[in-house]
Amino acid sequence: PVLRLLEGQLQDQRREHEEEMEALKNQVDLMQEELEKQQQAFLQTLQLSPEVQVEFGLQQEITRLTNENLDLKELLEKLEKNERKLKKQLKIYMKKVQDFEASQTMMPVERRPHERNMQVAVQRKEKDFQGMLEYYKEDEPLLIRNLIT
Question: Mean pLDDT, to the nearest integer, of 38-50?
Fold first, then answer.
């Protein structure tokens, strides 16, 4: 039984190796074809006049830069999409923190868990606020206490 198991593993490895070799051969063939195309294009450009060679080189560089710009634009779009997603998540978490803080302030003092353990560290953007503070009359003592501390 052990010998058959080892033979089976050996056959599996051989099969994987052969498949890998076939894939590598195909890849080498494709690379050789690409190299031949590039060599042919190079030989053709050598037969052209110097002005046409320069123009051809410029066209190739423009094509390369255009492709690079498209890749960068795609990357920028992905990053912007990710930024919007993260901003949405941040808003949701900020709302949850505010709701949690509000629920903690509504609890009687003796029933509150230790506030040291319950603090949530959230970095907020510095903003310049202008105008009046809106609050409920029944929250005035709590607001004053929080302003003082």
Answer: 82
**Residue 37 domain boundaries:** 1-47
Residue 139 falls inside a structural domain: no
- The answer, yes or no, to whether residue 11 has pLDDT greater than 80, is yes
Closest Cα to residue 133, out of 124, 141, 143?
143
Distances (CA, A) of 127 to 60, 124, 130, 149: 49, 9, 10, 21
**Nearest in space to 41 (alpha carbons), one of 27, 57, 29, 30:** 57
Cα separation values, 86 from 80, 98, 119, 121, 128, Å: 10, 18, 22, 17, 23
- Cα Rg, the chain, nearest whole Å: 34
Whether 4 is in a domain gets the answer: yes
- Give the alpha-carbon dihedral of 113, 117, 118, 119, to 10 degrees: 140
Quick check: is 25 in a domain? yes
pLDDT digits (tens, 9 = 90+) for 83-96: 999 999 999 999 99
Work out how many domains the chain is built from and give that number: 1
Domain assignment of residue 95, yes or no: no
CA atoms within 13 Å, Cβ hemisphere of 145: 6
Q: What is the mean pLDDT of the chain?
A: 84
Number of residues written out for the chain: 149
